[in-house]
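Page 42, continued from yesterday. The earlier attempt failed because a stray header line got pasted into the input along with the sequence. Redoing it now with the clean sequence only.
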Amino acid sequence: SPPDGFMELASEVAASAGRLPLGLNLLGSSMRGRNKKYWVDKLPDFRKGLDGNIQRALQVSYNGLERNEHKALFRHIACYFNGDEVDTIKLMLADSEMNVNIGLETLIDKSLIHVLPLHEKNIVEMHSLVEEMGKEIVRQQSKKPGKREFVTDSKNVRELLKDNKGTINVRGISLDLYKTDKLQIHKEAFQEMSNLRFVNLYTRKWDHNKEVKWDLHEDFNFFPPKVRHLGFDGYPMRRMPSNFRPENLVNLRMEGSKLDKLWEGIHSLTGLKNMDLMESTNLKEIPDL
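This time it went through. Structure tokens are written below.
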């Protein structure tokens, strides 16, 4: 335990490392034997962000994952599934070749994630510092966002949808609509993203005074058939694309949409586990599920 007078300082230094085991080990080595004045003088540096050695250590931990599928699972969690239930992640990745159970255990052993019990559910938690490292790994896949595995930076998502820059490489996009005043979507925005599994255009908190100005072409008529999570809060059209096939959907969330009906006909929805159409006040009927 820290010497007398160091407890509060030690707690703050630990917090600056996100209480990550790798970070704590490195910080402990660098601070051991130093006097109290040195600790106080170093705190401003720690508050500014992770020490470069900790960043490199986290990268080494990721690089040390022997199987590509475990690296892929790490990137999926960092970019899309942080804070989700274990069972939800398994459902979402059921069409992949990943062994999620073994992958999660491996990431836990590497101190890259924790699984926490909460209200009889098991929640995957990745520290924000590790999450940011994962997102940076994905950014490094290509200078062009549309050629990356995930697109999560607001500016990049908006440009991707506006300019139809998506490719077969993209598996997921995520955008907090609360930070956006206008969203323009090309009529063929999703056409080339044939491997897209996860779409999350969301609001963390529905705000009746906050409205996104939509510019969605009237000829927009395509969602990729492999989509498993479709989140599209405030969806501005009366119907889903007529050729949309929802058979692969696991989660459907369209809070505050302008839908008056989801789709025509009967579809097999054996995989659908959650549907959230809250505040979709124009909705007149839901098809037979």
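Notes: The CA atoms of residues 35 and 41 lie 10 Å apart.
Reminder to self: strip header lines before submitting.
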